């Protein structure tokens, strides 16, 4: 029995066996400000209406036309120009994985500024592609344009990711820096706009001007993190290649129907996003006025801040029933940094009350 199991395990790639599964922190019963979820649910009457919509979905059939219709509706919702291609993912995480699969061939590398979204590097590793992380400027987390250009020149990356706004730092990049990077990039550039509902700018114009620029979005931060719908926009020749790798039924009929429902009620979600943007500014101003914590301005639904002892701040807040993320270990530039997701006004007030006692 064990010999058989050992033999089977020996067939699994050593790098996979040495890796760790993605961990989500336990969060039952706490104020959950750790992974950039929209804290608002739909108003109860809409939840009930959604329930009856989902109840009418034919679960015995594989997803087909409805997901195609959702793709068309998302394309229209995105504001991308006519003729833009779209591919749907089971969350944008899956799209990152598919992009990496599409590019995985000898000599290919993936490049991104760091710190940024960790899944870029994880997916590259899964395809055994070298990942080149170019450190951001330490003081303001802006792109180090010259270092980015030098790394592009040296590695000729098949794929460059620019998270816009960036996770975990929350900022948008300088427009001229983006333009120069896009011009220098020999392969695909993905503008990852997961946080677009909270940002003052987007990359649709950039995408319209450069056929090698793709824009990736998700319904997760919109308010549907549990539903799992991501989408990749861009030149149909490129999205068409990713479409070939997409598992045929990756977006379930329930996901598609919930996605539709959300688009039909986009005004409700837009109002939630507007509240979160206002709350972000309120929390930012309050953090700025506190001793022992230095926040960076954000265009996302999170704020990165440096404290004296991130592990202690995390534990003290956790003991007070508030869950944030200690991102210190993710990159040397993030030493003693915590990332705080913007919650409801009540949750943010609880955070601001608990914080002073958690900073010493
Ligand atoms: N891109 C960025 C920058 C993110 O921060 C996240 C999630 N935190 C994602 C993509 C993935 O989002 P999802 O898979 O939920 O669409």
From TrEMBL:
Enzyme class: transferase
Matching SUPFAM superfamilies: PLP-dependent transferases (SSF53383)
Highest rank taxon of the organism: Bacteria
Alphabetic keyword roster: Amino-acid biosynthesis, Aminotransferase, Histidine biosynthesis, Pyridoxal phosphate, Transferase
Pathway the protein takes part in: Amino-acid biosynthesis; L-histidine biosynthesis; L-histidine from 5-phospho-alpha-D-ribose 1-diphosphate: step 7/9
Required cofactor names: pyridoxal 5'-phosphate
Molecular functions (GO terms): histidinol-phosphate transaminase activity
Keyword tRNA-binding: no
UniProt KW Amino-acid biosynthesis keyword: yes
Record-listed N6-(pyridoxal phosphate)lysine modification sites: 221
InterPro entries: Aminotransferase_I/II_large, HisP_aminotrans, PyrdxlP-dep_Trfase, PyrdxlP-dep_Trfase_major, PyrdxlP-dep_Trfase_small
Pfam families xrefs: Aminotran_1_2
Catalytic activity: L-histidinol phosphate + 2-oxoglutarate = 3-(imidazol-4-yl)-2-oxopropyl phosphate + L-glutamate
Segments forming domain Aminotransferase class I/classII large: 73-355
EC number: 2.6.1.9
HAMAP family referenced in this protein's UniProt entry, alphabetically: HisC_aminotrans_2 (MF_01023)
Subunit structure: Homodimer.
Family named by the database record: Belongs to the class-II pyridoxal-phosphate-dependent aminotransferase family. Histidinol-phosphate aminotransferase subfamily.
Protein's recorded name: Histidinol-phosphate aminotransferase
Organism: Roseateles paludis
Lineage: Bacteria, Pseudomonadati, Pseudomonadota, Betaproteobacteria, Burkholderiales
The encoding gene: hisC
């Amino acid at each position: 029995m064990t010999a058989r199991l050992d033999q089977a395990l020996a067939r699994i790639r050593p790098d996979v066996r040495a890796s760790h599964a993605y961990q989500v922190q336990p969060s039952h019963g706490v104020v959950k400000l750790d992974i950039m979820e929209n804290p608002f649910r739909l108003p109860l009457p809409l939840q009930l209406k959604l329930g009856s919509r989902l109840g009418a979905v034919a679960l015995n059939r594989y997803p087909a036309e409805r997901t195609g219709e959702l793709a068309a509706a998302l394309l229209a919702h995105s504001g991308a120009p006519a003729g833009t291609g779209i591919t749907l993912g089971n969350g944008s995480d899956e799209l990152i994985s598919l992009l990496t699969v599409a590019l995985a061939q000898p000599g290919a590398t993936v490049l991104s500024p760091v710190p940024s979204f960790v899944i870029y590097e994880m997916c590259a590793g899964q395809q055994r592609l070298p990942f080149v992380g170019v450190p951001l400027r330490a003081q303001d987390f802006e792109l180090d344009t010259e270092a980015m250009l030098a790394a592009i020149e040296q590695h000729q990356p098949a794929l460059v990711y620019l998270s816009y706004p960036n996770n975990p730092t929350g900022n948008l990049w300088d427009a001229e820096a983006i333009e120069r990077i896009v011009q220098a990039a020999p392969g695909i550039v993905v503008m990852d706009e997961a946080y677009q509902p909270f940002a003052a700018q987007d990359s649709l114009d950039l995408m319209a001007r450069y056929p090698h620029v793709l824009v990736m979005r998700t319904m997760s931060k919109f308010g549907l993190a549990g539903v799992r719908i991501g989408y990749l926009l861009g030149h149909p020749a490129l999205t068409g290649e990713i479409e070939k790798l997409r598992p045929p039924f990756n977006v379930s009929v329930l996901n598609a129907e919930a996605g539709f429902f959300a688009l039909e009620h986009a005004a409700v979600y837009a109002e939630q996003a507007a509240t979160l943007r206002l709350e972000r500014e309120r929390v930012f101003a309050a953090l700025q006025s506190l001793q022992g914590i230095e926040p960076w301005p954000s265009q996302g639904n999170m704020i990165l801040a440096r404290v004296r002892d991130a592990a202690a701040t995390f534990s003290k807040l956790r003991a007070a029933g508030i869950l944030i993320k200690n991102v210190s270990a993710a990159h040397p530039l993030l030493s003693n940094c915590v990332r705080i997701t913007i919650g409801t006004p009540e949750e943010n007030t609880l955070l601001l009350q608990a914080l002073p006692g958690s900073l010493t």
